Amino acid sequence: MKAQQQVEDLLAFIDDSPSAYHAVKSIVSRLKPFGFEYLDEKQKWQLKLGGRYYVVRDDSSIIFFKVGSALAETGYKILGAHTDSPGLKIKPNPVNNAQGLLRLGVEVYGGPILATFTDRDLSLAGRVSYKTAEGQVDSKLVNFEQPLLRLPNLAIHMNRNVNEQGLKLDKQNELPLIFATSIEEQLAGDYFKALLAKQMKVSVDAILSWELTVFDTQKGVFWGDKQQFYANSQLDNLASCHAGMQALLDEDVLGSVSTQVCAFFDHEEIGSESTKGANGSFLPDILRRIALATGIDGEDYHRALANSFMISADMAHAYQPNFPSAYEPEHKVTVNKGPVIKLNANHRYASESISDAHFMQWCEQANVPYQKYSHRTDIPCGSTIGPMTSAKLGIRTVDVGNPMWAMHSIRESAGVEDHIYMIRVLKQFFVN
Q: Which of the listed CATH numbers 3.40.50.1370, 3.40.630.10, 3.30.420.40, 3.40.50.620 matches domain 3-85+233-431?
């Protein structure tokens, strides 16, 4: 596909993935036509050479892979990314009646730019657990595709300094989302549960609990005088997930001899410390089981890890000329100028000189431009799944990402050409 077509597909993927749960569901739907088979962690595995498989943990993290030959000698080629994005999550007892308006209480998930959630057409998506007719616990994904919620801004007449001091929202008192006019019949029962039950086609009494994300219903778009940019929510980090998936699903990649792995984790934005996060057991468990199911054990498994390489793909901060003081003067990276190698002396990124050099070579082999990024020394640097996974597994890792604007806004932007560049270099990595 050409760059424009790949980004069209990316935007459709994001629009179909309003929560991490939906992102995994979307990925699975794209894997199945390529012959990927589901593996249950509770069952014994029987893997075949060249086989294509996927494993889902708790609905919102996924690892999919192709079994290669001579694992001890060739190792794993791993692409790591994350399915979650910062934002707002609905509280367990969310409904609040405020002067005739019903509001939903939220918790802040990760580090979103809260002001960007105001005056947007918001809705809800995620996972709801319920009791079946047989008395068992089951769950369904829900997606209220139509606008359901809003966080109206305070008029400038009541906030005269907003343009000088910025919009500051109290997380407890000023983030609840308006969603209904309060009337007597709504207050008589559990109105929010009734909304969920109607959406799921189950009884109100069956609803038990939920994990629901607030999302922007506006679809992704191209913009710019030549449509050279694109905008959507969740570019951080569904754009990296899409690039890795597109690279691995290339038939030349699937036909190569190495064992290729894509590992996409939930909970990166809150530290990855969970059963399905990158700092949990998910990736080590799966790599170990691949080895065992293909007759690799003991010392040969550790040889495989030592022969492995991982790319941690997360988005990077593109230079925004309106804010020049926010950037390291000699490390400004530009949209549509190629993937970014991210470096940090305090190992907030996993890159070091050798992994850095390898990625540079793969870019050159794929005829892809590349850039290098270092954060300002006087501003705290963010991090990725790279350092924790490389430390846990002892695998050489490089941290990379495509440049983007407005990271952690509800509406982010990036460059069309960069997406195809990233896909091309990841293909090169997988077949090298």
A: 3.40.630.10
